[in-house]
């Protein structure tokens, strides 16, 4: 067996008969305690985020007068508007987009190349390949950053690609390191997934004279759509959330993606807690939207990598 | 590269063009990965024996043997505190959020009607960047205006608690914030694991009169072994990678020193010490590999055993 698709958020096993039974049973005290405990825990878990939302909705003048721990007389979105305009947030969202979209597409494409080759054919080095990619993905980025920083400084790029003329401080460099680093996880997941596709399918195509490329593009890749969707959701979030690569490998603060830029914006534009809260929430917004819209994909991506039957 | 189809006796042999296509499909991503990940790793090891300011050319590199290691172990003040903090981080992460995540997964697996709502709330922080987690908790820990001190009634001069400024407290404050995110991650992994535990095992335990704890201890936990390994690796790696969250709080100083921060401190800025930074990276690498290699051996030995990879 290879990867088992475990959908955690789907309805629990045998949910229907269990519910039918429960309806007739009197409420057990154990269940009440358990639900109370879980409600309390869930509220504690949401508290820091709700506190940030509350802080961001209150006018600075009011919190300066009464303190942050007080009841509101008015709530509005002024802090969001100020954070958006003063810190020029659209620019940083655009920077993020420039990095995330190509990085995501290339990661998934390259990962499916390698996964296809090692899972559908007897490539002599396939075990070694899988191990190298998986191990590479688990390394802490700080292990490689010192030489990488020097390498990036010494690789020249044409000036139309980067004003500085180096791979350092360029989007190309940030995209490249994201792809190189994220490949490991995606290859791991996709190769497990591709092994579950019956071999007769591609065998038959091969007999019919389909080229390897055609098998990949027309047969295997379309069948991997569920895994690719889950991985895309997860990888979008991971690449979006990167702080470290752009911090070290980019010098120009105004070129950095939004998450890395936050550290600079704090203190310069985000001076009070209200603006810090609004700025942090705005930076988190795309990942929160992804979470609420595609929660199941996100969770599936994580668990695809972790569970094997 | 020798490439054949998996079951070559039945299928026709691959044409030369097919082999070339496959070779390119493997070579391009592999070269990218090796050049940007493993070559720098090897260079870190090599440069750990050198002294270099990183500004002059390669000919200004001076080979100094184990001198960097000697200095780091003996006279580099932040090193031992950083090691201690990393160890505390690791042990805390293994004990607290992991246990709590497993506990929550076990509760949520009991087929409660609102289980999806609970899961959504507990899992929410996992999608946030660690840097943003740092910003959000800054608002909670802020001495006079923060949520925590206001709830505790410790906001007056004299009795207020400086969660992030006090070097005896700030590491623990950071650990709580980082755990806020880690618990949800572990919970989801264990929930997935629990769904694949054979229900008949648990029924058998119940028929034998085992109570909940006994059933967990003797039946469920042993069945979760593959997930336990994943959780262990994820937790160790996350602890060693910790950087963003302390960096946004105070650039990793004054009680928040970590090995990852020391590596960063030595490459950026005027006094860039490439050899020194690389030595710190190698120490981090050694600890990481001590967990990564056994994991890979266990995992891939199991796949070979099942005949998936040859």
Task: Describe the 3D structure.
The complex is a heterodimer of chains A (309) and B (310). Chain A is an all-alpha fold and 309 residues long. Chain A has two domains: 51 residues, no CATH class; 224 residues, MetI-like (MetI-like fold, Orthogonal Bundle). Chain A is built from 14 helices and one strand. Chain B has 310 residues and is mostly helical. Helices cover 67% and strands 2% of the residues of chain B. A two-stranded antiparallel ribbon of chain B has the order 2-3. Chain B is flat, with a radius of gyration of 25 Å. The chains are: A mainly alpha (309), B mainly alpha (310). Chains A and B meet through helix 1, helix 2, helix 5, strand 1 and helix 6 of A and strand 1, helix 1, helix 3, helix 4 and helix 5 of B.
Q: Short description, anyone?
A:
Chain A contains 14 helices and one strand.
Features:
heterodimer, A: 309 residues, mainly alpha, MetI-like fold, 2 domains, 14 helices, 73% helix, 1% strand, globular, disordered N terminus, B: 310 residues, two-stranded antiparallel sheet, 13 helices, 3 strands
Secondary structure topology:
The complex is a heterodimer of chains A (309) and B (310).
Chain A: H1 15-24, H2 29-57, H3 60-66, H4 78-86, H5 89-120, E1 121-123, H6 126-138, H7 141-154, H8 171-194, H9 199-207, H10 212-223, H11 225-240, H12 244-249, H13 258-268, H14 273-306
Chain B: E1 3-5, H1 16-47, E2 50-51, E3 62-63, H2 67-74, H3 79-108, H4 115-123, H5 130-141, H6 147-152, H7 170-195, H8 199-207, H9 212-223, H10 225-241, H11 244-250, H12 259-267, H13 274-305
Antiparallel strand pairs in B: 2-3
Helix pairs in contact in B: 1-13, 3-7, 3-10, 5-7, 5-11, 7-10, 8-9, 10-13, 12-13
């Amino acid at each position: 067996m290879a990867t088992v698709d475990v959908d955690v958020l789907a309805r629990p096993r045998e949910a229907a008969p269990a519910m039918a039974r429960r309806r007739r049973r009197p409420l057990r005290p154990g269940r009440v305690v358990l639900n109370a405990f879980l409600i309390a825990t869930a509220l504690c878990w949401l508290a820091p985020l709700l506190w940030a939302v509350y802080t961001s909705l209150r006018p600075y003048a009011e919190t300066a007068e009464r303190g942050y721990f007080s009841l509101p007389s008015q709530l509005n979105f002024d802090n969001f508007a100020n954070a958006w305009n003063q810190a020029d947030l659209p620019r940083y969202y655009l920077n993020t987009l420039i990095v995330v979209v190509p990085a995501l597409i290339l990661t998934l494409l390259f990962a499916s190349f390698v996964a296809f080759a090692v899972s559908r054919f007897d490539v002599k080095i396939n075990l070694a390949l899988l191990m190298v990619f998986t191990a590479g993905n688990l390394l802490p980025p700080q292990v490689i950053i010192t030489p990488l920083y020097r390498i990036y400084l010494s690789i020249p790029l044409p000036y139309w690609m980067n004003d500085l003329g180096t791979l350092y401080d360029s989007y190309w460099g940030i995209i490249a390191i994201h792809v190189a680093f994220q490949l490991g996880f995606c290859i791991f997941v996709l190769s497990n997934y591709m092994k579950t596709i019956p071999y007769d399918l591609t065998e038959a195509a091969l007999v019919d004279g389909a080229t390897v490329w055609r098998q990949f593009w027309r047969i295997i890749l379309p069948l991997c759509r569920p895994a690719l969707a889950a991985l895309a959701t997860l990888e979008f979030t991971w690449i979006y959330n990167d702080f470290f690569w752009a911090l070290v490998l980019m010098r120009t603060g105004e070129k950095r993606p939004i998450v890395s830029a936050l550290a600079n914006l704090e203190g310069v534009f985000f001076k009070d807690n209200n603006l810090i809260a609004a700025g942090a929430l705005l930076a988190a917004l795309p990942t929160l939207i992804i979470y609420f819209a595609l929660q199941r994909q996100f969770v599936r991506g994580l668990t695809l990598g972790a569970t094997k039957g | 590269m020798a490439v054949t189809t998996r079951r070559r006796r039945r299928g026709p042999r691959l044409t030369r063009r097919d082999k070339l296509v496959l070779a390119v499909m493997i070579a391009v991503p592999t070269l990218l990965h090796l050049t940007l990940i493993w070559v720098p790793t090897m260079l870190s090891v090599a440069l750990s024996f050198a002294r270099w300011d990183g500004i002059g050319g390669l000919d200004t590199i001076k080979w100094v043997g184990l001198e960097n290691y000697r200095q780091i172990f003996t006279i580099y003040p932040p090193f031992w505190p950083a090691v201690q903090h990393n160890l505390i981080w690791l042990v805390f992460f293994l004990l607290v959020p992991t246990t709590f995540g497993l506990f929550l997964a076990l509760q949520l697996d009991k087929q409660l009607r609102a289980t999806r709502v609970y899961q959504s709330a507990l899992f929410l922080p996992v999608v946030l960047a660690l840097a943003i987690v740092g910003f959000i908790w800054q608002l909670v820990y802020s001495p006079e205006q923060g949520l925590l001190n206001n709830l505790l009634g410790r906001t007056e001069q004299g009795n207020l608690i400086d969660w992030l400024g006090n070097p005896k407290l700030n590491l623990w404050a950071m650990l709580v914030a980082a755990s806020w995110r880690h618990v949800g991650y572990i919970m989801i992994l264990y929930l997935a694991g629990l769904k694949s535990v054979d229900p008949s095992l648990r029924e058998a335990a119940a028929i034998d009169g085992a109570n909940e704890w006994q059933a967990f201890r003797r039946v469920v936990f042993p069945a979760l072994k593959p997930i336990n390994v994943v959780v262990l690796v994820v937790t160790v790696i996350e602890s060693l990678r910790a950087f963003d969250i302390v960096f946004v709080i105070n650039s990793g100083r004054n009680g928040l020193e970590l090995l990852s921060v020391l590596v960063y401190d030595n490459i950026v800025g005027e006094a860039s010490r490439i050899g020194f930074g690389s030595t710190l990276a190698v120490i981090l690498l050694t600890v990481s590999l001590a967990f990564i290699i056994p994991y890979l051996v266990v995992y891939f030995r199991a796949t070979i055993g099942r005949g998936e990879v040859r």
